Amino acid sequence: MRRVLAALGFFLICLCCSIGCTSGDNCSSGNHCECSGGDQCFLGCDGDGCDQSCHNMGTLCGTTCGDDCRSQCHDVGTTCSQSCGSRCGLECSHVPTCGVLCGDNCLLKCHDTSACSAQVGPNSEVTCTSVDTCRVKCTGSCIVHCADTGCNITCGETAPATECEHGRYACGGC
Fold this sequence. Notes:
Shape: globular
Number of helices: 1
Oligomer: single chain
Number of domains: 1
Helix content: under 10%
Order of helices and strands: HEEEEEEEEEEEEEE
Strand content: over 45%
Low-confidence stretches: 1-25
Number of strands: 14
């Protein structure tokens, strides 16, 4: 619950920051929006099916979107924060901290980061590669691939995930 509140707090802070889209100001359904080359950026898509990219920022980068979206966040100085509805494809890499909130049927790839914290919905799949700490909370059935890293996977509020095989964990059965 603290992670959820922290992520929401980050988004509120980002709302106070200016939005800088290098691809224009059209961050709406079905469009690509990109932000790069500044200190901090927040890309808010006011619909579904958006394609967001936030990269090469000095401090913070955040994306938020409805359903069926794609979001990439990489090469950011401190934190990438991503929030998405259902059926999204998210990637976070080359940043000290990734924070992700995603609904059901999401695919998340965290790699080359110090810490990746995510809350995902039912039928989601998370892959942590070259991550020091991978913390995933599944609110339903999910699969987490987390080998050779500090894995902390919970199902629901407190139940631990089942290790199906080395580096592959599941909530809701293998």
